[in-house]
Every structure is written in structure tokens, then in C-alpha cells.
């Protein structure tokens, strides 16, 4: 039994932030029903290639992007623009603990699927809305996109190479961090609301916004600015106060991270590279001196690092006690012994007959471990079963809904 195996979730979200949230709940044991448009479904189903492969190795209609955020869910296709589809959603919501949606502000109210309407039927409902900019404010009606929010929320002002260096300028993250972090905050908010409900019997509305999350997650960068009124700048892979604390390219074109935290570690680093004299140079002997003369020192260190391969450097620096690590490609990540030992890849049978190769949930619970039981569903895979099980619909009723294009 999962920690949330007593919880029913109605998932009206799509793309990434909402599905990431509900996948967390599903991994923890919640019964998550994903509502999708008939014939189309979640937009990310077609965001490929690459695609899930069937037993013969042929591409299916399920993009890998979709697979990343929809494990352990069941799919029900419904056209909620029709009264019959809306009635099904309301009936399911009346049996659910949580509703998650990421429609435009006010859109679900037109269908009678907003919080006020559903809470009137089920007062202890926890209802979470995820939008780009929240339910109020001058930008509330605007659609939200992760890339744009990374820029608006300040993340790109502190991410990227220094302006004066080649390739300098603002840079987005390699993954949709605003979406992912909003999904994570939404998961936490839902569990807090469920705890409150269990104590009081009262549900509540949760208003999550990508921009709010992006601003919040800048953490110490925010407080640095608020304390000093000086905007932080981009440093790329370098550190403003410590040298060397950055990346270096190796002889085999691999990359390492060197995180020298004191003068003793600096000496060990350059001794490992056969350049002990650098530690005796007054310009480089102490960290404050190295920071002042970083433009002289870093090219010398870069040349030194290019004399050995990535694996050779890691072996030498780990032996010497210098904080370091490789910059791994994803093939290297999933082949890494620590990643393997932690079980971070999970393979699940897919409805196509192939195997869905997925990333495991990183939460480790001793008494109620997370589950990985079902591959992300094909579009409408569980429609009949859900309507029969939850609402008692018979085959004739389901056939009529399907003939009308509702299911």
C-alpha cells in the first residue's frame, strides 16, 4: 500500500507542470485518472521523436516526452465541451479527493467544472489550479510558457556565460525547470491541503503559478539582491568568490568540475597536474589573490587540464582529496554504478507490447515505498473500465457516449 493509496485524483492537466505533480501523487499510491481529449489527448503525446517502440521495434503514437510525466495513471477520454462530458467529470470529482487542472483562468467555470461549483457538491475537495501567472494580477489571462517564465522570473539573468566571454549572455536551463518546480510545489501544496482536510474536514483551493515559482526558486540570489540592492550577474560555470571553482575540458574532450575550496586543495590540484610552482606564485597562492587574477590563472589551468583525460583527472583528484566530478552524458549517467545501485531506471511493460524505459521516482520511503506499476497509458486505455467501475455505466451507455464523440 502506497502512502497515498487512499487518495483519488482527477487530473485535468496536460503538458508538464500538472502531469509532473500528479505523477508524484500516483507514484506515492494515489489512484490518478487522467482526463484527455478524444482523438488527441495530452499535447505531449505527439512531441516527438523519439517515440515509445512496440514489441517489433516500431514507433508508436506515444512520444518519450509524454512518457516522462504520466506513469501510474489511467486515461479516460472525455470531451468536456459537451454537457455529457461535463456531467461525467462532475460525477468523478464528487468521488475524488483532489482535482488538478491547468486551463486558462476562468475557462473551466464556463463548463461548471471550477472549484466553486465542484466544492458545492464536495466541500472537502482539494482543487489545484496551475497557470502561468496565477488567478489574479494584470497577467492572469496570459498563457504561460516555461521558457518565457525563466526569462521573466530572473533565472536567465543569472544563468549563462559572462557577457564579456565568448558565448556570453542569458541562457535557459536544459530542462523546463519552471514547469517541473511548479509541479513539485503543487505536490507539496496538495499534500498539505489533504493533511488540513483530514484534521478539519474542510477542503481548499490552491493557486499555483509558474512565475511565482520561478521567482521563489532563485533562493539566495533573491536575498543577495534584496539585502544589497545589487543585481547578481552571470558567471557561467565559474564562481564569483572562489577560484578555481568551475568546469574544465580534458584531453579526450570530456569535462570535469573542480571545486577547490581552500589553498591546500588548490596546491593538491596543481600538483596532480604537474604544475606545483603555481601555488608558490604570489598571484595565485591565496584564494583572494586567485580571484583578483583569475583571468591569468584560469587559462593556465585550462592548459594543464587538457593534458589528461576525464577519467584520469577524476582518479587523480579523488586520490588527492580535491573535490571534483565528471560532467556525464546521459549514457554515462545511466551506466554509472551509483545511479544503478539506487535503481534510478525502471522498465515497465507498455500496452503496445514494448517496454517503457523510465526514470524512477527518487523518493525513498521505508514503510510505504513509491511504486512503479503501470507504464504511461495509451489514449483512452482505461475509459470503459473507469466508467464501469466508478460510475456504474453499462456497455450500452458507454457505446452511446462513444458514438456521440463524448468518450
Automatic annotation (TrEMBL):
Pfam families: CoA_transf_3
Matches recorded under InterPro entries: CoA-transferase_III_domain, CoA-Trfase_fam_III, CoA-Trfase_III_dom3_sf, CoA-Trfase_III_dom_1_sf
UniProt keyword annotations, A-Z: Transferase
GO molecular function, one term: CoA-transferase activity
Entry-linked SUPFAM superfamilies: CoA-transferase family III (CaiB/BaiF)
Domain of life: Bacteria
Protein name: CoA-transferase
Lineage, top ranks: Bacteria, Pseudomonadati, Pseudomonadota, Betaproteobacteria, Burkholderiales
Amino acid at each position: 500500500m502506497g502512502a497515498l493509496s487512499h487518495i483519488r485524483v482527477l487530473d485535468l492537466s496536460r503538458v508538464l507542470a500538472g502531469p509532473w505533480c500528479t505523477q508524484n501523487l500516483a507514484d506515492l499510491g494515489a489512484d490518478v485518472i487522467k482526463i484527455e481529449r478524444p482523438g488527441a489527448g495530452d499535447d505531449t503525446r505527439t512531441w516527438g521523436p523519439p517515440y515509445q517502440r512496440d514489441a517489433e521495434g516500431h514507433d508508436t503514437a506515444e512520444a518519450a516526452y509524454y512518457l516522462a510525466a504520466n506513469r501510474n495513471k489511467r486515461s479516460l477520454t472525455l470531451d468536456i465541451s459537451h454537457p455529457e462530458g461535463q456531467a461525467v467529470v462532475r460525477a468523478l470529482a464528487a468521488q475524488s479527493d483532489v482535482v488538478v487542472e491547468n486551463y486558462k483562468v476562468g475557462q473551466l467555470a464556463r463548463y461548471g467544472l471550477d472549484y466553486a461549483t465542484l466544492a458545492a457538491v464536495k466541500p472537502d475537495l482539494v482543487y489545484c489550479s496551475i497557470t502561468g501567472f496565477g488567478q489574479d494580477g494584470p497577467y492572469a489571462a496570459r498563457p504561460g510558457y516555461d521558457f518565457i517564465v525563466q526569462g521573466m522570473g530572473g533565472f536567465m539573468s543569472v544563468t549563462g556565460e559572462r557577457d564579456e566571454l565568448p558565448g556570453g549572455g542569458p541562457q535557459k536551463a536544459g530542462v523546463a525547470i519552471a514547469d517541473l518546480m511548479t509541479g513539485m510545489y503543487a505536490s507539496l501544496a496538495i499534500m498539505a491541503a489533504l493533511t488540513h482536510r483530514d484534521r478539519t474536514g474542510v477542503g481548499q483551493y490552491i493557486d499555483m503559478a509558474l512565475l511565482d515559482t520561478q521567482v521563489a526558486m532563485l533562493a539566495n540570489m533573491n536575498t543577495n539582491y534584496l539585502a544589497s540592492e545589487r543585481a547578481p550577474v552571470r558567471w557561467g560555470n565559474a564562481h564569483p568568490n572562489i577560484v578555481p571553482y568551475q568546469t574544465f575540458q580534458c584531453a579526450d574532450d570530456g569535462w570535469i568540475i573542480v571545486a577547490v575550496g581552500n589553498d591546500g586543495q588548490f596546491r593538491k590540484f596543481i600538483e596532480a597536474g604537474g604544475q606545483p610552482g603555481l601555488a608558490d606564485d604570489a598571484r595565485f597562492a591565496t584564494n583572494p589573490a586567485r580571484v583578483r587574477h583569475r583571468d591569468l590563472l584560469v587559462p593556465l589551468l585550462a592548459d594543464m587540464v587538457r593534458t589528461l583525460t576525464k577519467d584520469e583527472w577524476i582518479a587523480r583528484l579523488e586520490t588527492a582529496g580535491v573535490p571534483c566530478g565528471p560532467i556525464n552524458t546521459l549514457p554515462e549517467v545511466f551506466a554509472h554504478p551509483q545511479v544503478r545501485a539506487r535503481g534510478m531506471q525502471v522498465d515497465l511493460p507498455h500496452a503496445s507490447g514494448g517496454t517503457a524505459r523510465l526514470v524512477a521516482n527518487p523518493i525513498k520511503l521505508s514503510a510505504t515505498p513509491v511504486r512503479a506499476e503501470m507504464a504511461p497509458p495509451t489514449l483512452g486505455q482505461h475509459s470503459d473500465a473507469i466508467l464501469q467501475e466508478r460510475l456504474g455505466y453499462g456497455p450500452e451507455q458507454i457505446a452511446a457516449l462513444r458514438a456521440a464523440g463524448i468518450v
